Amino acid sequence: MEELQKQLGALLLQIRKERGWTLLDLSDATLGRINAGNWSVVERGQRTPNIWHLISWCEVMGFQLGDLLERARNQDADIKQTIPGKILEPQRVPLLSWVQAGCWSESIPADPASAKMIPAPIRTTKSAFALEVRGDSMTAMVGPSFPDGYLLIVEPKRQADHKSFVIARENGSDNCTFKQLIIDGNKKYLKPLNTQYSAFEINESTEICGIVVAAFKEF
Fold it and tell me: pLDDT digit string (tens) for 43-57?
């Protein structure tokens, strides 16, 4: 068991390095589900990863969990001699404007000739789309952070829960906004992660246009 733990950790480290990702990139892509400090211990083979963290890792890296574990079991002493596992072909989603996001549906498919298609780091539905972060309202000093220029993968049909990162639009407004949904009893708020901005209460006139399921920076 200890040997498999070391082999899995070495494999996770190798794949991350091959992608050119830092631990913080991995944490951001999983929306903070994977903690950079804790994951470094996993990559050193000193801790067995939680199954849910492994599933999150596979989602953003494009691996099937079974293939990853099988590859770890078959590791040779020299990690560099391993045969690549089965990697899922990345799905592509349309990069929308913040105005388009407010009226998006899978019944209006993106025209590849007119829309930039972004490779998504996780498996998505046909109705998923991408947005590019503008401004610093969702940039945080600690925890999940979404700086200006980050790309968001959004699922418009997923249910929003407390602390979900959402794309929302006020009825009558053309533009959407990106905030964290806070549910406190019967009240709901949209909260920026940047403490220089204030949260504000929303009501039935605010439409949740989608849930952010992944975030990353494009190189």
Answer: 998 988 888 888 888
Q: Which residues pair with 119 in a beta bridge?
A: 92
**Residues 93-122: pLDDT tens digits?**
999 999 888 877 544 555 545 678 888 877
* DSSP state for residue 30 in the 8-state scheme: T
Is residue 52 within 8 Å of 30, Cβ to Cβ?
no
Give Cα separations from 129 to 19, 95, 147, 154, 212 (angstroms): 23, 6, 19, 5, 10
Q: Are 31 and 111 found together in one domain?
A: no
Name all contacts of 34-43 with Cβ < 8 Å and 24+ positions apart.
39/12, 42/8, 42/9, 42/12, 43/9, 43/10, 43/12, 43/13, 43/16
Beta bridge partners of 97: none
Paired strand residues for 131: 152
pTM confidence score = 0.65
What tokens appear for 144 in the block?
Answer: 């999940």
87, part of any domain: no
Query: How far is the C-alpha of 43 from the C-alpha of 34, rounded, in Å?
Result: 12
Domain hosting residue 19, numbered range: 2-81
The answer to whether the CB of 11 falls within 8 A of the CB of 71 is yes
Task: Give helix then strand counts, H and E, for the chain.
Answer: 5, 9
Tally of domains within the chain: 2
